[in-house]
Design brief:
The complex is a heterodimer of chains A (787) and B (157).
Chain A lengths: L2 E4 L2 E4 L6 H8 L22 E4 L6 E2 L10 E3 L3 H16 L15 H9 L16 E2 L4 E3 L10 H10 L4 E4 L6 E4 L12 H5 L6 E2 L12 E6 L8 E7 L2 E7 L12 H5 L14 E4 L2 E4 L2 H19 L4 E5 L5 H14 L4 E2 L31 E5 L3 H4 L1 H14 L2 E6 L11 E4 L5 H16 L14 H11 L4 E5 L1 H5 L3 H15 L2 E4 L6 H7 L10 H4 L4 E5 L3 H4 L3 H10 L2 E6 L4 H6 L2 E4 L8 E4 L5 E4 L12 H11 L10 H8 L35 E3 L9 H4 L2 H4 L9 E3 L1 H6 L7 E8 L2 E11 L7 E3 L15 E2 L1 E4 L1
Chain B lengths: L3 H11 L11 H12 L4 H11 L3 H10 L11 E6 L2 H5 L2 H12 L12 E6 L11 E3 L3 E3 L4 H10 L2
Parallel strand pairs in B: 1-2
Antiparallel strand pairs in B: 1-3, 3-4
Helix pairs in contact in B: 1-2, 2-3, 3-4
Classes of the chains: A alpha/beta (787), B alpha+beta (157).
């Protein structure tokens, strides 16, 4: 290890480290703009010039490797003179009007100009003007004259987001950051470029000029949108959330968050917030006091139990509810004597009773994603389902040579180097995985699992099996589609066999924010699950944090069951049109920024957070509401003083691994392979439903800026050219879609669109959108006809 | 937009680089596209980028970096006059002004008949023969005194 001296301090530098990295490690600050620890080195801002003994000129610390015996001076007169000179150059064309700049007060250039700049400039001439640009609804490019051409945004696109959307056009003093032909920036990670921009050139469009950074309180929180559990800093003023920024946690989200995590806060202040309890009187919803609404709910539930038995009660929690909320909800339901409680509304296929449904988790720590040698991802629109896992796999493929294979239902570009990418129709997904299992068994010379006799491996499955077998760390991940599939259990069984044969571990990406927390909270059904509670309609439903008309596997089925029920109690931060129609009791509960609680992410990390602002209107934290409801129902065990007390009862601190990870997580399953699941559908059109990233939960659906992005475009009926021809359709024409289910026939009219990435015979129709809510199951037969 | 002939030429350029590094051929590919179409429209740049499997904005970076790529339509003949220091000292600016007066157009303009476009260029590596004028990026004309310029203009139909 080379030994170097920085400002008189001797230090052992790691092999290959730059002066910048060694100085950072030592706690010596070297000013910089273009350098970022997660990005490649550009050395184009020249701000980090330092003096090195025996070097003829100052050298850039970010691009100079530390070598043995090197003596670095960061504050010598030569270094200071160089830094001042660079700063003067940077400010030649940069406007000096910080008071009217949105970045003012949190600007690296402003800070460093104070710290390293001179009081005056030699430059008296006119400054250069760069025209503003439009990059979509998230990033504002109104003040491109402020750009100092550090190219952090360009490198972020190339290296982290995997798609180069910004580039630097022209040369020298004409350089400017542009998108191609002024197109919008559509990456699901684009907001990070706002953080990276060291000046006020790229700013947040929704936050722009809404507040000054010093007026904002900043409190830690956790994102609920996906199972990464990204660490957030939520900034608020006057009890209104103004902005969300990433909070660095190398083990979870590094220093990034997805745009969904970043901009969903706008939904918190949506006009659709429910702020007063309501009950239905004579067919009309009326605002009432909390005590009245809770009495009404408690009375209604007791009445159902007395008249029809507790089994007539069912409760469904959103998988983005907190651990505490889910725990107390199931406690109320079980206290009343019912086992009909679940938190997995998008699932179709549940493990048969008697088979323990262990807490399904990632199977490893998130940070280990970067170190894998092989990753097989089954059934995931990985970039849009869980952007930060996709980001880690992208880095792994790029820097670690990880062989990433995707078996999915569409050829959406994951923006990473792929080992294999197999695209199949939904009904073929189990068979596609079965081919890999059989190929692996044959390659490993172990007995082929019973049930796979008829399966014939093909070339891609052989290649995938080989990649899983080679020495090193291998994982099989089941994504959102795999767990929401009609044969989800069989897919799990096949993946288990593949894991047993190859030695690769099995993991679940998790289809929602707090899904692991749900398993741990005790909210797993002991009677009817999130599907059977609707196929076998109950008389009373309790809904927590969910919009069943959009968030269930089959919204039509759910709505039919809700409509026939006698009592529908809805605990929700928002009120939707459908709720106005079916709800009997509406209890306004607090979203994640207004309550304390706990999310458990995919790796089992238990992350508790406090409320950031006080609840809006009369909304109250759901755990308190459920506790009071438990008391009103005279149930035992509802006298917790705090959400921490609830959490510690569910996850006693002494059971946590390293004090932060839940124990007892288990992905194992022991069931025979069912050859019936391996038969693909013939002669019918199949629906492929993705959950578009900006429709995935009630909060993000109400975030205006995200709703203006390309990813939030209304769904179309996407088909390959062959499918279009088969159905007698042309792209752009209206198409009538129909799905049958036990709740009846559901219909939607959409526009047909050409997408050759959709497997032949399939129609890709997104779920979670009002335009498609009238349809049935996410996967299954769909009828297609021209209008 | 790219003709089969252009694509064949681009393929020859791609073959000069290791497999998977086809984006290294971007400069040659853009030059070939420009030769066939006269100038590089955004659509043409995108087509080249897609053909080479690179982001369109990365091809745009290249196309806007170098002077010899024309991002706006030019006349049949593009005259690029060097005005860097050695040429300037030997009458480069005078040559440019003479051309402007003679053709009745300004810098970066095209004659109304679409015959000639006037451009200002960077050093062409022939300072000894200054002033230098480049015709259509290919033909170098040295020692461009007014008389030489007149002769050149007469030659260009």
């Amino acid at each position: 290890m080379p030994e170097i001296e920085i400002d008189g301090q001797l230090v052992q530098a790691p092999e290959g480290a730059t002066i910048m990295e060694v100085a950072e490690q030592l706690g010596v600050y070297i000013p910089h703009f273009c350098y970022h620890k997660k990005l490649s080195i550009a050395a184009n801002c020249r701000m980090c010039l330092v003096q090195v003994e025996k070097a003829a000129k100052p050298v850039p610390a970010c691009a100079t490797p530390a070598t043995n015996g090197m003596k670095v001076f960061t504050h010598s007169s030569l270094a200071v003179k160089a830094q001042q000179g660079v700063m003067e150059f940077l400010l030649i064309n940069h406007p000096l009007d910080c008071p009217i700049c949105d970045q003012g007060g949190e600007c690296q250039l402003q800070d460093l100009a104070v710290g390293y700049g001179a009081g005056a400039s030699h430059y008296q001439e006119e400054k250069r003007v760069v025209f503003h640009k439009d990059a979509g609804s998230l990033i504002s490019m109104q003040e491109m004259s402020r750009c100092i051409h550090c190219t952090r945004c360009v490198r972020f696109g190339q290296e982290i987001a995997g798609v180069m959307e910004f580039g630097m056009a022209n040369r020298t003093m004409h350089s400017e950051i542009v998108t191609f032909l002024g197109r919008s920036v559509d990456s699901e990670l684009s907001g990070n470029m706002i953080d990276l921009c060291p000046v006020g050139a790229l700013t947040s469009k929704p936050f722009r000029f809404a507040a000054r950074s010093w007026e904002l309180s900043r409190l830690p929180s956790i994102s609920l949108h996906d199972s990464v559990g990204a660490n957030l800093t939520v900034q608020a003023r006057n009890h209104r959330v103004m902005r969300v920024l990433p909070r660095e946690n190398e083990a979870v989200n590094e220093c990034w968050i997805s745009d969904r995590d970043r901009f969903s806060y706008e939904g918190l202040n949506s006009p659709e917030r429910l702020t007063k309890p309501m009950i239905r009187v004579d067919g009309q919803l009326r605002e009432v006091e909390w005590s009245v609404a809770l009495d009404y709910a408690a009375h209604g539930l007791r009445d159902i139990v007395a008249r029809h038995g507790a089994d007539e009660i069912a409760a469904l929690a959103a998988p983005w509810s907190t651990l505490e909320e889910m725990h107390l909800l199931q406690k109320v339901v079980r206290g009343l004597g019912s086992g009909n409680v679940d938190f997995r509304p998008r699932r179709y296929d549940y493990a048969p009773s008697g088979v323990p449904a262990g807490a399904r988790w990632l199977g490893m720590r998130i940070a280990e994603l970067n170190e894998l040698d092989t990753a097989l991802v089954v059934g995931s629109f990985v970039r849009k389902d869980i952007p930060l896992f996709a980001q880690r796999l992208r880095q792994a493929a790029k820097h670690n040579g990880t062989r990433v294979t995707l078996i999915s239902l569409g050829n959406d570009d994951p923006l990473m180097a792929m080992h294999e990418h197999v695209v199949v129709a939904p009904s073929e997904l189990p068979a596609a995985l079965a081919r890999v299992v059989k190929a692996a068994a044959l390659q490993c010379r172990v007995p082929v699992p019973a049930g796979l006799e008829a399966i014939v491996p093909d070339i891609p499955s052989e290649a995938i099996a080989t990649s899983l077998r080679v020495r090193g760390r291998s994982m099989i991940f089941l994504g959102r589609v795999a767990v929401q599939h009609p044969h989800a259990v069989q897919i799990h069984v096949l993946a288990q066999h593949l894991s047993d044969i190859t030695g690769a571990n099995l993991g679940f990406f998790g289809d929602s924010g707090n899904i692991v927390g749900g398993y741990l909270s005790g909210a797993l059904p002991s009677a009817r699950n999130a599907r059977t509670m609707f196929t076998d309609p109950r008389r009373a439903y309790v809904m927590l944090g969910i919009e069943p008309e959009l968030d269930c596997h089959n919204p039509q089925l759910t709505l039919a069951a809700l409509r026939q029920a006698d009592l529908r109690i809805v605990l929700s931060p928002f009120i939707s049109e459908a709720m106005r129609e079916y709800a009997d009791v509406l209890l306004p509960v607090a979203p994640f920024t207004e309550t304390s609680g706990t999310f458990v992410n995919a790796e089992g990390r238990v992350q508790s957070f406090k409320g950031v602002v006080r609840p809006l209107g009369e909304a109250r934290p759901a755990w308190k509401v459920l506790r009071v409801l438990g008391n009103l129902l005279n149930l035992d065990g509802f006298d917790q003083e705090s959400s921490e007390e609830v959490r510690d009862a569910v996850l006693p601190p002494e059971t946590l691994i390293d004090g932060e990870f839940a124990s007892g997580l288990d992905n194992g399953i022991k069931l025979p392979i069912d050859p019936a699941a391996l038969v693909s559908a013939k002669g019918v059109f199949e629906r492929v439903a993705d959950v578009p990233i900006y429709f995935s939960d009630p909060l993000v659906r109400r975030a205006p800026a995200l709703q203006k992005t390309r990813d939030a475009a209304p769904p179309t009926a996407r088909m390959s050219a062959r499918t279009l021809a088969e159905a007698g359709l042309v792209a752009g024409a209206p198409v009538r879609l129909r799905q049958e289910s036990i709740a009846g026939s559901g219909e939607a009219v959409l526009t047909a669109a050409l997408d050759d990435g959709v497997p032949d015979g399939c129609v890709r129709v997104s779920a979670a959108h009002p335009a498609t809510a009238a349809l049935g199951d996410m996967f299954g037969t769909i009828q297609v006809e021209p209008v | 937009m790219l003709t089969p002939e252009s694509l064949a030429r681009i393929d020859r350029e791609i073959a000069k680089y290791p497999v998977g590094q086809q984006q290294s051929a971007v400069m040659a590919a853009l030059a070939i596209a420009q030769e066939a179409h006269g100038w590089l429209s955004p659509e043409l740049i995108e087509e080249v980028a897609v053909y080479l499997g690179m982001p369109p904005v990365a091809a745009l970076e290249v196309a806007t970096f170098y002077n010899m790529y024309d991002l706006k339509p030019v006349g049949r003949y593009k005259l690029t006059v060097c005005t860097n220091l050695p040429c300037m000292l030997s009458g480069g600016v005078d040559a440019l002004e003479y051309l402007q007066k003679k053709l009745g157009i300004g810098l970066d303009e095209t004659t109304p008949d679409g015959r000639i476009t006037l451009k200002q260029g960077e050093c062409m590596g022939a300072c000894g023969d200054a002033p230098v004028v480049l015709v259509n990026n290919r033909r170098m004309c040295a020692s461009m005194t007014p008389a030489e310029i007149d002769r050149l203009l007469a030659e260009l139909d």
